[in-house]
């Protein structure tokens, strides 16, 4: 997801070695579609300590290709720390000395949480494309069970995320108004526009036309690798910016091809094609305008949280305007909201990159 | 290529029924790579009449997915006229009452000109991927044979084109300085940047990983349809703009999926996957900076033609800046050049759409 080099640093200031845990819910999960699954698992990680009053928890929500591993390393040999390691840790903007940070792999995911590649206990077979349709709201509902039932947290100090994670953060503020103190949404949108839907449709088409997709019925080790890598290569371009690519490759502009192939290959090794289909459909369906009966500010009516919305100048997937309109609608609804726009040339992925300006904003917002 | 509806109009003002012709050259064509083919064909169309002094010819150069059929219809039942019918015709901005308009399918093409799907007379087999590598300069060289040797034109009144056609127009001005009176280049670039190369690489990957591609060795009727349609769907998004898609689909944003699938299917029916690979590689290799030894204005040194460069505000594939820098370099080289920027929301495809402002510019430039 992130092309900025992140080398692990085991000095003070790092969460260091971490391990995931699994929350097994024996209660069914009912989806927006009306379908349900009888039980489910969410894989998650936590960093820092939950205080006695249980009011210092921050939920981090991941983006399309992310997972629960957002900080620290799994072994000392790990060359790559979690995807948001630059911002999460002791003394960092999301300070694990102060906060108890939770991040779960979304429902429908492929990194330990129940999703299309999991076995349906009712049939003994993998769900594949029989897994219920997922919405952003469904992701939030499943996370709610983890936070409230399993971790016993009554109110989150903050829900934070970028891109698909930002959608979840906003939805958290709407769906659990009295359980969320702050919402921090970055590089996101209130509704997928036609261009974003178009790119996702091409990605899904590449996957679903790969003969190895087989209507979604494949072994994880023999999935539609060609289709998934093409989908990823294309999507990866939309996460960057022309200026960023110029900076990265300069005169060696043909190197971008190798770089994309590498991105495609490594994605296939860690991601499931059916989850890609389910998650992109959830993105495409996300529509806070619809939730507000056509009026975005209406969707935010219930929200009580303070919010900070952050757009990035070079993001052309969810451009600044789309972030700005979220903040405007929040203000129109009478909410305590702030909008910040950060000038960075990393495109959509800017939110994942070390940036002093972003760090200061996050620190101030969490004070 | 163009999503703007173009319905044929058989009233005065249309070139009406047209037919293609084939120019067969028995001279070899030597490519920039040093490779050659012993003979070649260019399919072309002409509209209007060549005057006695043979100085009223305009060469129209087509873009990646275009061909020689740029105006008129082939039968009265034809529902779709040539790709630039809106601007070419009697009394239209490219006025066939005044000008003799020539447009040829580029060398390497798949619509009648010699290309990868043509038979190599030396082997009796289709060239497939044994066709020589193509550059924009090679396209221009082959067109030169058509214009000078076959049509007996000594000097072109104008060479005009958008996108890949704009690259050819610029190259014409450089390679045949005393044979070109005017160069009109729209929505183009002096060098493909990393983002454009990246999109092309994903398209080629989709094609080349399709098992039906078979290293390029396939029957035209059994080509890599899946890969080619995915490539086209993705590329088509880059020809439009977010604002244009909003306008087109509005609240029915999910319709964009159907629209793209239609684009993918219809492209597969008319285009050859190997030509797509060769043409996109020619695009990626195009580099007037390189031709000028790193200095764009140096590349334009030989040029004698007057030029008009036109950028479109919503074009994010070859954005206004990239068109502007062509005009600046021309001016720096002491050439008679003008830059115009037109505000339209059709994205890269804006140059194909009816637009009064563009029409006025073209009329004035050709006066």
Helical stretch tally of chain A: 11
Percent range for β-strand residues of chain A: 15-25%
User: Widest sheet of chain A: strand order?
Assistant: 1-4-8-5-11-12-13-14
Of all chain pairs, the largest interface belongs to: A-B, 37 and 37 residues
CATH-defined fold name of the largest domain in chain A: Rossmann fold
Question: What is the CATH superfamily classification of the largest domain in chain A?
Answer: Alpha/Beta hydrolase fold, catalytic domain
| Biggest beta sheet summary of chain A | 8 strands, mixed
How many β strands of chain A by DSSP?
14
Looking at the chains present, what oligomeric state does this protein adopt?
homodimer
Helix fraction of chain A by DSSP (H/I, runs of at least 4): 25-40%
Number of domains of chain A: 2
Output the CATH class name of the largest domain in chain A: Alpha Beta
Shape of chain A: globular
| Average pLDDT rating of chain A | 96
State the order of secondary-structure elements of chain A, H for helix, E for strand. EEEEEEEEEEHEHEHHHHHHHEHEH
Describe it.
The structure is a homodimer of 367-residue chains. Chain A is α/β, with parallel strands linked by helices. Chain A folds into 2 domains: 21-192 and 286-366, Rossmann fold; 196-281, Rna Polymerase Sigma Factor, Chain: A (Orthogonal Bundle), CATH 1.10.1740.110. Chain A is 34% helix and 16% strand. Chain A is built from 11 helices and 14 strands. Chain A has helices spanning 136-150, 164-175, 194-208, 225-239, 242-249, 255-270, 273-285, 288-291, 296-299, 320-332, 356-366; strands at 21-25, 29-30, 36-37, 40-47, 57-61, 88-89, 94-95, 100-104, 119-120, 125-126, 158-162, 182-186, 306-312, 337-342. Chain A has an 8-stranded mixed beta sheet, with helices on both faces. A two-stranded antiparallel sheet of chain A has the order 2-3. In chain A, strands 6-7 form a two-stranded parallel ribbon. In chain A, helix 1 (136-150) packs across helix 2 and helix 3 (194-208) packs antiparallel against helix 7. The first copy, chain A, is globular and about 50 Å long. Mean pLDDT of chain A is 96; it is low at 1-5. The A-B interface holds A 192-195, 197-199, 201-202, 205-206, 209-211, 226, 229-230, 233-234, 237, 240-242, 245-246, 248-249, 253-254, 256-257, 260-261, 264, 284, 316, 319 and B 192-195, 197-199, 201-202, 205-206, 209-211, 226, 229-230, 233-234, 237, 240-242, 245-246, 248-249, 253-254, 256-257, 260-261, 264, 284, 316, 319.
